[in-house]
Predict the structure of VWFA domain-containing protein.
Amino acid sequence: MRGHLFSKFKPAQQSGNNKFDQLLDIFQQLLLMTSGDVGEAMSWLSQLDRQYNLTNDSYGIGDFFDDLKKKGYITEEKGEGGGQLIMTPKAEKSIRKSALDEIFGKLKRSKSGGNHHTPHMGSGDELSSDVRNFQFGDTLDQIAMTESIKNAQVNHGIGDFMLMENDLEVVEREQKTTTSTVVMIDISHSMILYGEDRITPAKKVALALAELIRTKYPKDSLDIIVFGNDAWQIQLKDLPYLEVGPYHTNTVAGLELAMDILRRKKTRNKQIFMITDGKPTCLKEGIRYYKNSFGLDRKIINKTLTLAAQCRKLDIPVTTFMIATDPYLKQFVQNFTEINNGRAYYSNLQGLGGFVLEDFQRNRRKNVK
């Protein structure tokens, strides 16, 4: 009897289009790592090609570069010092979609195509699978015909058919709600310290979350803020170009800005996602910056915890994604989370996206008040 025959795997030769898609995926990853610098990303891609033979004699890096321009992913911006290669809006959208597929790819298996459902039943927007007795005010389209006719036959017999009000059953409606989300991204210098790139996964998660909301929950709102010595709001189109600076970590400024943004929202469900890797080390007092990078500073920590309590009073949960494992940092985050009644995840860079998705969907299931 002949057994299994093993041989060396020889991948099939890829066509030009398949090669382009493969290189485009790598190129988009490099664009995030280089903060949108097309020239630097192409240089890195060439180095990877020399090391790993990404291209072949029929399709090279030069062909890929030409296709990027022909298909509208990059363009040349004319300036006084010569032309500069930049990403187009098509490339920015493609990066968001790629991040969504990579991080939240399991959503493709979901057949639900609309907005979020809350566990709150009643006069809502969409039929659920639960049935109950008819009540005054229920609409005709809610009536469960099969169950109602069956009740009439059981209650009155099948010889002389009658359908009375107490025979009627209706299908419950689920309410759909909207959520306002603010994502806070730490851009302090520690996000690239120790040879580990922590800012790129944070950007990728924010891009994926933005694309998720735009496609699956279009009525929701997403605002993105970054915080270092200060905090400021950025537009979605600016996210791929985000860079870490020589900053401390002013968590207080980030929380204050996030609260100001959410106060202006009229939605009932509000939440803050904070992605950080370090302790608060900075506080602004008037025009002066109070800084202390040596351990947990009582003055800074107390102010941060005060804001956590204020968020709780406003019914704004703060979910902290801590990309660090230091025991004293964990203790601070635990105190912050307990005061806010929020959540905290201690994640490596690979697991960050899954935690964000899980918590985003959970927070959207809050009851409508």
In short: The longest strand covers residues 126-133. The chain has ten helices and 13 strands. Confidence is low (pLDDT under 50) at residues 106-114, 116-125.
